[in-house]
C-alpha cells in the first residue's frame, strides 16, 4: 500500500459506512445517522481533494468514489422510504433514472464504443437535491417536525430533477450514439 491508495481506502471506508448509516436510520437514531452521513460527506471531499492535489487519481478511484456516493445515497433514500418518510413512487423514479443511465451507458459501450461518462450538471443538481432531501427528512424527524412543507417541496423538486436529468442523459447520449453511428 502506498500514499496513492489513500483516496481509494477512504472511498472503501465510505462504502463500509453505509451499513451503520442504514442501521441508525432504521432504528430511528436520526442524530447518529446525521453524524455518520456528515462523516461520509467530509470523507468524500477529503478523498477528492487528496486525489486531485497529489495526482493520486486512479481508474479504481474513478469507480469507487461515485459507487460509494451512490450506495450511501440509495441506501439512505431506501431506508427513509421504508420508514414512510419518502414516498415509494419517488424511490422508484430515482432507481428508474439510474437504471436508464446505466443501461444506456452499457448499450453505448457495447454497441457504439468506449466512452467516459462525465456527469452532466443536471445530474450534479439531482444528486445535491437528493442529498438535501435526505438531510431535511433526518433533521425533520430528529428536531423540527414542522418542516413538512419543506420536505414536500423537496420531494417534488427531486422528482422534477430526476425527470430532467434522466431526460437529458437520454438526449445527450442518444445524440452522441446517433452521430457516431452516422459516421460509421
Question: What would you say this structure looks like, in words?
Answer:
The structure is a single chain. The protein is flat, with a radius of gyration of 18 Å. The N and C termini lie far apart (44 Å). The mean pLDDT is 92. 23% of the residues are buried. The longest helix is centred in the last third of the chain and has 36 residues, at 148-183. By secondary structure, it is mostly helical. It has 2 domains: 1-68; 84-184. It has helices spanning 6-26, 30-53, 59-82, 88-111, 121-142, 148-183. It has 6 helices and no strands. Helix 1 (6-26) packs parallel to helix 3 and helix 5 packs antiparallel against helix 6. Pathway: Phospholipid metabolism; phosphatidylglycerol biosynthesis; phosphatidylglycerol from CDP-diacylglycerol: step 1/2. Keywords: Lipid biosynthesis, Lipid metabolism, Membrane, Phospholipid biosynthesis, Phospholipid metabolism, Transferase, Transmembrane, Transmembrane helix.
Amino acid at each position: 500500500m502506498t500514499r496513492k491508495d489513500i483516496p481509494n481506502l477512504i472511498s472503501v471506508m465510505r462504502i463500509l459506512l453505509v451499513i451503520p448509516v442504514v442501521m441508525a436510520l432504521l432504528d430511528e437514531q436520526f442524530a447518529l445517522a446525521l453524524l455518520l452521513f456528515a462523516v461520509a460527506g467530509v470523507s468524500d471531499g477529503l478523498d477528492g481533494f487528496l486525489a486531485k492535489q497529489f495526482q493520486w487519481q486512479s481508474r479504481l478511484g474513478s469507480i469507487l468514489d461515485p459507487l460509494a456516493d451512490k450506495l450511501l445515497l440509495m441506501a439512505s433514500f431506501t431506508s427513509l422510504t421504508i420508514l414512510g418518510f419518502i414516498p415509494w413512487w419517488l424511490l422508484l423514479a430515482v432507481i428508474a433514472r439510474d437504471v436508464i443511465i446505466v443501461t444506456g451507458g452499457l448499450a453505448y459501450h457495447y454497441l457504439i464504443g468506449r466512452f467516459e461518462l462525465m456527469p452532466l450538471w443536471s445530474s450534479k443538481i439531482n444528486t445535491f437535491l437528493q442529498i438535501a432531501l435526505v438531510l431535511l427528512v433526518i433533521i425533520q424527524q430528529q428536531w423540527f417536525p414542522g418542516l413538512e412543507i419543506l420536505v414536500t417541496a423537496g420531494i417534488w423538486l427531486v422528482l422534477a430533477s430526476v425527470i430532467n436529468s434522466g431526460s437529458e442523459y437520454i438526449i445527450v447520449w442518444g445524440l452522441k450514439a446517433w452521430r457516431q453511428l452516422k459516421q460509421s
